[in-house]
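#help-structures

NK: newbie question. if I give both the sequence and a SMILES, will the prediction place the ligand too? trying with nicotinamide-adenine-dinucleotide
OV: yes, paste both and it writes out the complex. here, I ran yours:
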Amino acid sequence: MFDLKGRTAIVTGAGRGVGAEIARHLARRGAIVAVNDVVDERAEEIAAEILADGGTAIAAVFDVTDHGAVATAAAALEREVGGVDILINNAGVPAQMRVAKFVDSLPEDWRKYIELNLYGVMNCCRAIVPGMCKRGWGRVITISSGAGTVGLNFGVSPYAAGKGGAISFMRHLALETAASGVTANTVAIGLIDNQADPSVTASLAKTIPVGRLGRPDDVAALCLYLASSEAAWMTGQTIGLNGGSPTS
Ligand SMILES: NC(=O)c1ccc[n+]([C@@H]2O[C@H](COP(=O)([O-])OP(=O)(O)OC[C@H]3O[C@@H](n4cnc5c(N)ncnc54)[C@H](O)[C@@H]3O)[C@@H](O)[C@H]2O)c1
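OV: that's the protein plus ligand as structure tokens.
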């Protein structure tokens, strides 16, 4: 099950964290993986690691918020490794993420969250999904957040607007592409233990019913399923992956 041999995948924002783990898992199942990041050393490091582990990977350095750069990169990938079968929209944390109550936020700070979390997803889908539809097979998976599905009092409303926008967009994309063999699903993840300070995460973990924060491999395992042929009947869904937490 979940054999990805012969498939080409791209994971955005895969130079570290959750995206890097998704890229490693896809490669272990046999996919050729394009490791995207806006930071070239990060993309190159993870691609090299996958190669050293016996997988097939290339670095694909571009900014998902730049539609022209995304389209150019998608065309180059098609020439070099074939059309993309699996698109994982993972890039989602802007470089300077500021937490602030909306009433104290600055309008000039909102744009980066929407551009990355909504336009970034739309740019990649616009460049890659037409080829999937033409070939009659594709998997689009967007990594969203519990912040896009419930209200939180953490001061992350512009980020949540982008995450929630992507969830709505994916539902519509799923229906438009369902008859072409292309599925589109979103994973709304809760808090992930991603090199965070353990003194902070220990208390947060206690609020999660299963008693721990999520790990990047929890997300990667679900992505493997969603990316597989076995998941052909799963589309248009927003799947909460959060240790049972009702608030994320
Ligand atoms: N970590 C969490 O607790 C958590 C919780 C909920 C949702 N998420 C979501 O999970 C995903 C991964 O989060 P993470 O914690 O691994 O993030 P991270 O910050 O560790 O890694 C994200 C990577 O994306 C890259 N990136 C940023 N902007 C980019 C752009 N414009 N184009 C291409 N690459 C870009 C960064 O350089 C970085 O390497 C994100 O969508 C995030 O919103 C994370």
